[in-house]
């Protein structure tokens, strides 16, 4: 049995947990305190949240130790949620815990003698808590291809990382979508702007309305007086809008980036301010690989669109369906014995690809639930 801890901030962590459940099936238990529409709710352990409630000691008098990010003292909710995690790990005989993400849960697992894999995110994560979580992990996971690795990442971290490629909710759906009715009859190219929940500053779209039909998706409403946008608001499925757009402008969080690239689209990345410079590093690495244009390095949107059109043809990264399946097969082959798993040395995604022979030996007949 595999455990998956999904952090509650944003939907991306739960999205990834849900994708793992499609591959691991009943062999996966998800831990989270986020209300999320999982495919298999019976596999979810809903935890108490860890927000302060007034019972904690003064955090100025009891500051976090340098090895942790968030550890208030005398907050009973955290005591109970940790107990729930440990009790269910024992009860369900969980052999390894995937942590996406929390350095505190990583430390809980390590001192409880539980093997864990820690999910790495983009950004400058060289602080002590992250390094401790990386060191204590049996191995590391990255939901992006190795080509996206920052050039200044220490070798020992790279060698400890299994690269699964970009994870997207569209990974298991190869069906092309019909053109959205809102786009109308195609007369001019469509420019689609994905607004985020972070309230970032809207790029300057001046003059572009003369050449493009412009649409905005997301919670942030764009002024029609300024840019002549048609605001479509929050939509349940962004895929058809992405597939039928000629130009895509979007923030470059892990979730959005994976969704755009998984349907073989390049885009103009608008990095938002995030902890550890996560989106800025993402934009830099995307541009370096020719998969997006970093707007922060361009004079304006017009020059960014020009640069996007001139990007040399380069294959977009392989989506991670095959890598996820191979990851499952590898675990089953080794009976979830993490020490044997990591003793194989460097774990690039190429070394994880399992052959048809391994599939026959394992006699894996359970279909993937999509």
Automatic annotation (TrEMBL):
Family annotation (Pfam families): Glyco_tran_28_C
Coiled-coil regions listed: none
Gene3D superfamilies (alphabetical): Glycogen Phosphorylase B
Top-rank taxon, per record: Bacteria
Gene Ontology molecular function: hexosyltransferase activity
Originating species: Pricia antarctica
Start and end residues of each Glycosyl transferase family 28 C-terminal domain: 225-321
Entry protein name: Glycosyl transferase family 28 C-terminal domain-containing protein
């Amino acid at each position: 049995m595999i455990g998956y801890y999904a952090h509650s901030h944003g939907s991306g962590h739960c999205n990834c947990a849900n994708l793992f459940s499609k591959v691991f099936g009943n062999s996966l238990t998800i831990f989270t305190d986020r209300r999320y529409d999982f495919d298999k709710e019976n596999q979810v352990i809903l935890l108490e949240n860890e927000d302060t409630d007034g019972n904690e000691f003064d955090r100025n008098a009891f500051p976090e130790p340098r090895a942790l990010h968030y550890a208030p003292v005398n907050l009973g909710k955290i005591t109970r949620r940790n107990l729930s995690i440990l009790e269910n790990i024992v009860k369900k005989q969980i052999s390894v815990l995937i942590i996406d993400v929390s350095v505190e849960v990583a430390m809980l697992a390590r001192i409880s003698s539980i093997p864990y894999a820690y999910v790495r995110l983009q950004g400058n994560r060289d602080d002590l808590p992250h390094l401790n979580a990386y060191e204590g992990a049996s191995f590391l996971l990255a939901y992006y291809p190795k080509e996206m690795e920052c050039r200044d990442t220490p070798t020992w971290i790279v060698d400890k990382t299994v690269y699964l490629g970009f994870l997207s909710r569209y990974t298991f759906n190869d069906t092309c979508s019909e053109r959205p009715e809102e786009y109308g009859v195609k007369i001019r190219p469509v420019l689609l702007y994905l607004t985020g929940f972070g309230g970032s500053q809207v790029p300057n779209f001046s003059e572009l309305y003369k050449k493009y039909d412009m649409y905005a998706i997301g919670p942030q409403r764009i002024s029609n007086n300024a840019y002549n946008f048609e605001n479509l608001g929050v939509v349940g499925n962004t895929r058809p809008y992405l597939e039928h757009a000629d130009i895509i402008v979007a923030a470059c969080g892990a979730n959005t980036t994976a969704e755009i690239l998984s349907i073989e689209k390049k885009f103009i990345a608008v990095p938002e301010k995030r902890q550890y410079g996560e989106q800025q590093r993402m934009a830099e690495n995307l541009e370096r690989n020719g998969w997006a244009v970093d707007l922060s390095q361009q004079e304006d949107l017009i020059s960014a669109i020009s640069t996007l059109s001139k990007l040399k043809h380069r294959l977009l990264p392989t989506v991670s369906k095959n890598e996820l399946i191979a990851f499952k097969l590898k675990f089953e082959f080794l009976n979830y014995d993490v020490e044997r798993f990591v003793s194989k040395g460097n774990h690039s995604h190429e070394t994880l690809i399992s052959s048809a022979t391994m599939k026959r030996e394992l006699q894996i007949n359970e279909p993937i639930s999509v």
